[in-house]
Design a protein that fits this description.
- With 335 residues, the protein is an alpha/beta fold.
- It has 2 domains: 9-108 and 305-326, ornithine cyclodeaminase, domain 1 (2-Layer Sandwich), CATH 3.30.1780.10; 116-302, Rossmann fold (3-Layer(aba) Sandwich), CATH 3.40.50.720.
- It is built from 12 helices and 15 strands.
- The chain has helices spanning 13-19, 22-34, 105-124, 139-149, 164-178, 188-192, 237-242, 251-257, 259-266, 278-283, 287-292, 304-320; strands at 9-11, 46-50, 53-60, 67-76, 86-93, 98-104, 130-135, 154-160, 182-185, 197-200, 221-224, 245-248, 275-277, 296-299, 325-326.
- A hairpin with a 4-residue loop joins β5 (86-93) and β6 (98-104).
- It is globular, with a radius of gyration of 20 Å.
């Protein structure tokens, strides 16, 4: 007799929030990037565009994972459609050859970006208490602060955001949730000066750089996540020039398709010979460069591997806790 097929499940953002732990996600990502990753297992993101409608797809097959799949997101930015973007991660099960789950990707996107940055920071930054500067006060800035606090003892957090109320609310939440002294300040330079770790997580409205090398103290580690396509800017070219080791989650996309690196190339700054992938960092392939680095930077555009690794972790925990919602659907299998 054929065993009944298990229905796909749905995992909401509320469930993802209830089962997620930074330490688990960081460890899973460090393990995933420690493998030799075939290029065909993590192809570049694709974006379909028609007028003001776009659809982005990020597929990945993690080495050694049970699940594989893709994240889809899209929006129609014109017409009468209400504003907003929805994300869904579709996971396939290697052991059953069936669609296993649909996961709300909104929170997962924030979780995976911050956990990936923290997994890199854990190897790039000196293992000692550190003062963190945050440029930005949105979801990514909030998640990164919490992820960083799970790999380093933060002595103080300073945050700059153009809106005083937002930066003060951000600082209050950090103190309340993490027990870390935090304060909002009136300029990016004031936030950055004297910081051991600097996170840039907010592009300016005019796509002008928000971080300059002259503000950074010797030895400071930079994490930049806000310039992910050619039109976006976040860090000044002087920061690229200052960095003696640049770790990229997706090497080619960071170096060739982000506004910050395009601007640095146009300014005549050489950086390819000091840039390495996150897999190089995790596997030890750039240990010599890491040992010599005095001004490291991690630069991220995000990737499907991160989505799938963190989604698998969340799905597994949701199933164990009985919090995944079975769906009353069945897909026909082509044989």
């Amino acid at each position: 007799m054929t065993a009944p097929l298990q229905a796909p499940v749905f995992v909401s953002s509320d469930v993802a929030r209830s089962v997620f732990r930074w330490e688990d996600a960081i460890a899973a990502l460090q393990k995933a990037y420690g493998h030799k990753i075939p290029a065909k297992a993590t192809p570049p993101r694709t974006v379909a565009v028609l007028d003001k409608t776009w659809l982005r797809t990020l597929p990945a097959i993690p080495v050694g994972g049970r699940y594989y799949g893709a994240k889809l997101m899209g929006s129609n930015m014109g017409g009468d459609a209400p504003p907003g973007i929805e994300y869904v991660i579709v996971l396939f099960d290697r052991t059953t050859n069936r669609i296993a789950a649909f996961i709300d990707g909104n929170l997962v996107t924030g979780y995976r970006t911050a956990a990936t940055s923290a997994s890199a920071l854990d190897l790039l930054a000196p293992k000692r208490p550190a003062r963190l500067a945050v440029l930005g006060s949105g979801l990514e800035a909030s998640m990164h602060t919490r992820a960083f606090a799970s790999v380093r003892q933060l002595t103080e957090v300073t945050v700059f955001s153009p809106t005083q109320a937002r930066r003060e609310a951000f600082a209050a939440a950090v103190t309340r949730d993490l027990g870390i002294t935090a304060k909002g300040v009136a300029s990016a330079r004031e936030a950055v000066e004297g910081a051991d770790i600097v996170l840039t997580a907010a592009r300016s409205q005019g796509e002008e750089p928000i971080l300059f090398a002259a503000w950074l103290k010797p030895g400071a580690t930079v994490v930049s996540i806000g310039s992910t396509i050619p039109e976006q800017r976040e860090i000044d070219v002087s920061v690229v020039e200052r960095s003696d080791l640049i770790i990229c989650d997706t090497l080619e996309e960071v170096l060739e398709e982000t506004g910050d690196m395009i601007a640095a190339h146009a300014a005549g700054i050489r950086f390819h010979d000091k840039a390495f992938s996150l897999a190089d960092l995790m596997s030890g392939a750039c240990n010599d460069q890491l040992c010599r680095a005095k001004a490291p930077m991690f630069k991220s555009v995000g990737g499907g591997l991160q989505d799938i690794v963190v989604a698998e972790l969340i799905l597994t925990k949701a199933l164990e806790a009985g919090q995944a919602t079975p769906l009353p659907i069945e897909f026909e299998t082509k044989r």
